[in-house]
Amino acid sequence: MSANALPYRHHNHDACIADALADAKAICQRQNARLTAVRERVLELIWQSHRPLGAYDILGMLAADGHNAAPPTVYRALDFLQQHGLVHRIASLNAFIGCTHAGTRHQGMFLICHSCGNVLELSAPEVSDAIDVASADVGFQPDHVTVEVSGLCPECPAPNGALQNGPSHE
Amino acid sequence: MSANALPYRHHNHDACIADALADAKAICQRQNARLTAVRERVLELIWQSHRPLGAYDILGMLAADGHNAAPPTVYRALDFLQQHGLVHRIASLNAFIGCTHAGTRHQGMFLICHSCGNVLELSAPEVSDAIDVASADVGFQPDHVTVEVSGLCPECPAPNGALQNGPSHE
DNA sequence: CGAGAATTTGAAACATTATAACATTCTCTT
DNA sequence: AAGAGAATGTTATAATGTTTCAAATTCTCG
Ligand SMILES: [Zn+2]
Ligand SMILES: [Zn+2]
Ligand SMILES: [Zn+2]
Ligand SMILES: [Zn+2]
Q: pTM for the whole thing?
């Protein structure tokens, strides 16, 4: 369940998917929730993609499966998966991505590369803490927090003349 | 331009609006940008509302003005206003709100009350800093940051038995 | 097992949000 | 006044998300 790893390169994605599905099954069992066929398939499709998938992308893939699904089918599956902490919705993209910290208490922060489209979910307690402090300062009770950072990932070449600040990987 | 004030109560909202419009004029002049009639009216409508407005809300209000506008008119105005830092889009609401820090360099954080619908924009450097650090740790170059916190504002009664953590105002 | 309750899925229609493409009008400069 | 660029109008369409009710499935309990 490799939390905070850098999944940008060199990983066996099939294993990723298998792990995620196995985790999901365990989590649902623990919660007495039913990971039905559609739900599992949607989760699998989401994990198969490195990039966040839109609901209608998923719908199209289900259609390719031969499953003649309508939008509510997908949205219901996504709601279920979100509710059980198996996927996240990226509000700035209207898209969904598998949670890389499923089963653990975390407040995700999403790093979205606008060059390659990859998204990395980090668990960043310092960020959550800062948000909690700032909220408390004005008497606000946080309930759900969205942190989405769009930018350039370390795998992508800096556009023309700009400096790349990350550690060099080669 | 009351930055980080608590606009929840007791303020002269007409003055708010007038100030915001005056600021907007100045900012546009400085940037050689044209705050045309539609753009100004859209900005005014947004400021008149305490709560974020959807593009189609604005469209309806323009219609009430007698202005027979189509969606692109509104979206173009909103694009302009965003580009010049006069409004923000709240991704989790698909809605727009006036920037309370226009003209200053800031990274907004939005506190969205799901009870009353009010939104407070904070400039929270500690949050931005934490996000920058977490990003840099993994070699990611942030470009645009979305921080949206949904919860309960200090004006709204805590639902049933829950404790209200904010400073009591009465 | 088998009836009834609850959950899940199917299906059709609809609602909301956002954009594409091209014509026209306006504004500023020369 | 002419021309260039910016802004707006207009029509159509795409993309995203919801409501509603019916049918099927699964669970519970006697
Ligand atoms: Zn997560
Ligand atoms: Zn990238
Ligand atoms: Zn702002
Ligand atoms: Zn409130």
A: 0.89
